[in-house]
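Posting for a labmate who doesn't have an account.
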Amino acid sequence: MSTALNDVASAALVATGLAPGTQTSSPTGPTVDMISADGPCFAVQQVGAFTADALAGYIEESATGSSWAAVAGAAFAEVAAANNLQVIRFERTARYVRYAATLDGETPSVALAVVIGEQKKTL
């Protein structure tokens, strides 16, 4: 399998890890079924306005979509200020993934969006 994505729109599974919005408590994104993809994954976390002590985002995986565990090496660096963009690469070992984060602060408010992707399987 090639490691280059020359046509992202047709060669990659790209899913919403967390829809853009303002978070006021620790968010968990929707379950993403990665059955049609294979190989290394990536995730993009974009933070805008930030009124909190810290945001610690990470990717979780599940074989069934109901019991979740953190993916080794799939954590974003802790965010403590506005306007932060991070991209991570990780290897999943289960079919389903999702984004989760811990948001700390007395009255936190963070503008946040996350995208998760992986190259589609080829026959």
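Reply:
Got it, the structure tokens are right above this. The chain has one helix and eight strands.
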